[in-house]
Amino acid sequence: MTTSTVVKAESEQAPPRPARRRARDRLGPPWFFVVPALLVYAAIVLYPSVSGIVYAFTDWSGLGDWSFVGLKNFDTLFHDEQALGALKNTLLLTVAIVVVQNAIGLALALGVHTRIKSRILLRAVFFAPVVVSPVMVAFLWKYVYNPAPDAGLNGLLGAIGLDSLRQDWLGNPSLALWSVAFMVIWQHAGYSMVIFLAGLEGVPADLHEAATIDGAGRFSRFRYITWPLLAPATTINLMLSTIGGLKLFDQIFAATNGGPGYATETLSTVLYKQAFVFGRFGYSTAVALVLALFVAAVSLVQIRYLRAREDQT
Amino acid sequence: MNRYRPRTFALELLMVAVGVAFLFPVYALITLSLKNADQIASSPLGLPRPPTLHNYSEAWSAASLGGALLSSTLVTVLSLVLLIAIGSCAAYFLARTRSRLGYGMYVLFLLGIVLPFQLGMIPLYNLFSRLDLIGSYQSIIVFYSGIQLPFTIFLYTGFIRALPSEYASAALVDGASHWQAYTRIVFPLLRPITGTVLILNAVFIWNDFFTPLLYLAGSDHETVPVRIFAFVGQYVSDYGLVFAGLVLGAIPILVVFLVLQRYVIKGFASGLKG
After folding, report:
1. In the prediction, which pLDDT does B19 show?
2. A12 with A130, same domain?
3. B129 and B23, same structural domain?
4. Is A149 a residue whose pLDDT tops 80?
5. Which of A39, A178, A198, A301 has the most CB atoms around it within 10 Å of its CB?
6. CB distance B176 to B184 below 8 Å
7. Tally of domains in chain B
8. With left for phi above 0 and alpha for psi between -120 and 50, is residue B109 left, alpha or beta?
9. Is B172 an interface residue toward A (CB < 8 Å)?
């Protein structure tokens, strides 16, 4: 905000520059402060990303010559059953993660943000998986999802008398995607929880007391006081989980590698395989570009809508 | 609301039950890592009787975790130093400049937050391989410093904008150079946000898997997740051994988390306010 007004003021005033402003400019840091960061950023992010965008329109195979092929890669992508399936899986996985992870995160936050004695311990327990490497979590869950009837989750279900619910969690093509989603949710629900907790700590206690005196029930206190005040936390959580869901790679790579068949293939795993297994680098960067556009579009839409919602409340 | 009532007790029981159910995978992880193959086959979910540490000693040497821990530590620490040095300086300039060009640069840096790294993944790999840096620490350290810059600059710039500029101005008027004013006055004032930047980036870099797999797999510099990935691939059906490896690989960061719990949770909860 401040920046845009400053920019406007500058264009109105210049030229000639008032002496006072020049004196203040000298007190601002010189440009060489930004140069090292700019160089590293250009080498690691800007140059490779721009090349990536260019390669998306070529038939580059990683070696030797390449030529521009126009929109052919995108045409292939949108007519390729496998790529379209991966696109669908990416969206389904993202929706499942966003909805369930945030619902669980909110429920945990509400449960922990009370007088219960175990709240500090439980907060640490629910958050701990967040700091562990996703690859390791995926290997752990690969065992939990073991198809053997007496091991892992199946063993647990058997032990509590729910034998009929035993499944081949990662081997059943119609179930595997949801099993992957659940594993991701298990790891990151604590992340949503701490962001909601930070939001809950900002809800003034006297508002609740006043509403209680006025006869508001538990539910209406949540609906009309807590929930609107959680808007900023909800914004952050929805954005983080959406972007995380769209980009998800490590967990799938380690747990199913896209299988069984193509049941858990997503844009990330397809672009990886096209590049490093099939050597179709041009096509792979085209898939990456589609993923990038999704992430960018979702971020922009969410920033707009959720900002508007925050302003209303 | 403020007293411990029967209702609170009921909630306590419910939440503890949820916590116990939540920990089921961890229970499986730890008990399996303490069993030998016979015990795993006969009673996969029972308690280890008697528990054995054999898997741990074998996993430690079979996965060469000592070297991997050293690599991970080196990569994480050096990346953080470089990232914080260049990121905070750049943010200081971007937060204080009033030029259009400076604002344009800031927007350019923020663009990096939405760009998935996969877009530039292959061209960047080629760049490092032309420079003959694949398999070196330099490649991955420069990679992290660049890829985490947008987020780091975003956090620092927001913080610096809310910081009064008079401290640095006073030092400049007293004859300090810009560099002195920055290192002696401004940077120490950034401590709270530096803590957040440090925690979020440290967890990301320590756990990151795919880029170190591309750059470092097969070299002597493999980080913990890459090493564990190779190790699990090799001993896939030996659950006791694999799980001992997973426990050993996860312990360092879990210990750091438990010791610095308050700061880590605060960092994660506060660092992302847009």
Report:
1. 92
2. no
3. no
4. no
5. A198
6. yes
7. 2
8. alpha
9. yes
pLDDT at A14: 42
Considering the domain boundaries, does residue A162 fall inside one?
Answer: yes
Identify any residues that bridge with A58 across adjacent strands, giving them in sequence order. Answer: A68
The predicted complex's ipTM stands at: 0.87
- The verdict on B185 and B253 lying in the same domain is yes
Length of chain A as a residue count: 313
A7 with B100: CB under 8 angstroms? Answer: yes
Per the CB < 8 A criterion, the answer to whether A227 and A137 are in contact is no
Interatomic CA distance for residues A251 and A13, integer angstroms: 55
CA distance A174 to chain B (A): 23
Distance from CA of A131 to the nearest CA of B (A): 6
Q: What is the mean pLDDT of each run of 10 residues along chain B (274 residues)?
A: 79 92 90 81 78 85 88 95 96 90 90 83 88 91 94 91 88 88 91 90 91 88 90 84 88 89 83 47
Q: How far apart are CA B16 and CA A131, in angstroms?
A: 21
Domain count, chain A: 2
CB contact under 8 A, A37 and B270: no
pLDDT at B174: 87
- CB proximity under 8 Å: A 99-158 to B: 108, 111-112, 114-119, 121-128, 130-136, 139-141, 143-144, 148, 150-153, 155-156
Residue B18 shares a structural domain with residue B90: no
Contacts of B119 (CB under 8 A, 6+ apart): A48, A49, A52, A53, A285, A288, A289, A291, A292
Q: Tokens in use for B268? A: 């994660």
CA distance A307 to A2: 18
Q: What is the DSSP string of A18-51?
A: PHHHHHHHHHSPPGGGTHHHHHHHIIIIIHHHHH
Least confident range of A169-178, A247-256, B35-44, B78-87: B35-44
Report the C-alpha gap between B161 and B91 in whole angstroms: 9
B260 lies in a domain? yes
> By CB neighbour count within 10 A (0-12 exposed, 13-18 middle, 19+ buried), where does B218 fall?
exposed
Judging contacts by C-beta atoms under 8 Å, the chain B residues touching residue A140 are 25, 28-29, 243, 246
Cα(A175)–Cα(B249) distance, integer angstroms: 29
Structural domain of A26:
2-45
Residue in chain A closest to B19 (alpha carbons) equals A122
